[in-house]
Design a protein that fits this description.
The protein is of the alpha/beta class and about 425 residues long. About 30% of the residues lie in helices and about 20% in strands. It has 13 helices and 16 strands.
Length: about 425
């Protein structure tokens, strides 16, 4: 396949060139490539960018209301439609279960995935064989990150003694620990207090998880990572206080990466001041914050404190799932979809509003997640790299709606958002995705 006349965008530069693709790889980037009998795509007037990498998604996530509404099949379709060609999901062993056994089960679930995928392993417990299993994940299973939850104490969340053991084991293997940073115990107390006072509506969800419950957990994670010499990546950073702490740690030379998500950049906590039908879809954790937090997150992306934009894609239907918590917000399954619109939202509200450059767009959406999570030959338009390529139409306008989105969910937290920019052609491992 030959792509001609397009404008290639990398982390560093923007330039016109042709691209030759052979056997799933980018084999040549040069001007005026002419090879007879190649399938030619004319990308005149379009950007050519590496396929998006969403480093934080939950397909088929179990909950008390059934699995999250996007399976690997429907969720990967939504990802590809939005220009994301690789997702990183999670393996979450039951407490006491072998990590490797859990991984095999998860691989079976992911068989229907249409795009490229990788896993983070989520230590939920630490036993005698765990260090060996962590080693095995890295050496044999191509897993290069481990993710712990400091919230959800009654389910997958861990206590500090386990966190310390995990950090030491991960540091010993020179790997990376990713963390959901929220102070689980304090949040559980606040949730119980609100419910006992009859404060049951979704608007109490953000009040039960105030900013300091994230930033104190970030502070703890940074301190313990320093003590154990463990590299860390903090997922879905949502507060200005956390951004400050992360920047300060980075300035001392500590290996701390950070991720944020479109919902924290584009929505504010007024979304909770609505009736249940409209506010329940915003029950996700950490919750949607204030305008001042949005500004700090955009600045963090611009100045490099935050390296990646992921989505934490984890949709639940309003009807039949979220509405289980109609009379008790703590029963609403946490999460929302995002994988489909991450890139068009970031392009529209980031690049087109001059908050980031187009090169930062590529860096944050593809190149950095590939580097941080060791996705070999991915995340760049470069000779020898995998041909995961998006031809980006920077002019196409759309309006996000649950009526037209590809993801399997009866609602969308970005309903009504206007986007400019669209993944017009998606090439996955050298082949055009025809069904999109
Ligand atoms: O509310 C959320 N974010 N649900 C998905 C699980 C998580 O915390 O990442
Ligand atoms: Zn999380
Ligand atoms: Zn998540």
């Amino acid at each position: 396949m030959l792509i001609i006349n397009g404008t290639i965008v990398t982390s560093e530069k923007t330039f016109k060139s042709d691209i030759l693709i052979e056997n799933g790889k980018i084999t040549k980037i040069a001007e005026n490539i002419s090879i007879p009998n190649e399938k030619i795509i004319d990308a005149e007037g379009k950007y050519i960018i590496p396929g998006g990498i969403d480093a934080h998604v939950h397909m088929d996530l179990p909950s008390h209301t059934g699995k999250s509404s996007d399976s690997f099949l429907t969720g990967s379709k939504a990802a590809l439609a939005g220009g994301t060609t690789t997702i990183i999901d999670f393996v979450t062993p039951e407490k006491g279960e072998s990590y490797i056994v859990a991984l095999e089960k998860r691989k079976a679930e992911a068989k229907t995935c249409l795009c490229n995928y990788a896993f983070h392993m989520s230590p939920t417990w630490f036993g005698e064989n765990t260090e060996n299993e962590i080693h095995q994940c890295i050496e044999k299973e191509n897993i290069h990150s481990f993710k712990v939850y400091l919230a959800y104490k009654k389910a997958v969340g861990i206590e500090d003694d386990v966190l310390l053991k995990v950090m030491k084991a991960v540091a010993k293997q020179n790997s990376l620990l990713t963390l959901h940073c929220e102070m689980g115990d304090e949040i559980d107390e606040l949730r119980a207090k609100f419910i006992s006072e009859g404060k049951t509506q979704p608007k109490y969800h953000p009040l039960s998880r105030p900013n300091h419950t994230e930033s104190e957990a970030v502070e703890k994670a940074i301190r313990m990572a320093k003590e154990t010499n463990c590299g860390i990546y903090i997922v879905h950073v949502s507060t200005k206080e956390s951004v400050d702490l992360i920047r300060k740690a980075q300035q001392t030379g500590q290996k701390v990466f950070a991720e944020t998500c479109p919902q924290y950049l584009l929505l504010d906590d007024s979304v909770y001041d609505q009736e249940f039908e409209l506010s329940a879809k915003f029950v996700l954790s950490p919750p949607i914050r204030k305008k001042a937090d949005q500004i700090a997150l955009w600045n963090g992306l611009k100045n490099g404190t935050i390296q990646t934009l992921a989505t934490d894609h984890c949709p639940f239907h309003l009807h039949g799932q979220k509405d289980v918590g109609r009379n008790d917000f703590t029963k609403i399954p946490n999460g929302a979809g995002g994988v489909e619109h991450r890139m068009s939202l970031f392009f529209t509200y980031g690049v087109l509003q001059n908050k980031i450059t187009i090169n930062q767009f590529v860096d944050i959406c593809s190149t950095k997640p590939a580097e941080i999570f060791k996705l070999k030959n991915k995340g760049q338009i470069k000779e020898g790299f995998d041909a995961d390529i998006v031809i980006w139409n920077a002019k196409k306008e759309s309006i996000i709606s649950a009526k037209t989105h590809k993801q399997n969910c009866d609602s969308n937290i970005f309903e009504g958002f206007k986007t400019i920019g669209f993944a017009e052609t998606v090439i996955l491992n050298g082949k055009k995705c025809e069904y999109l």
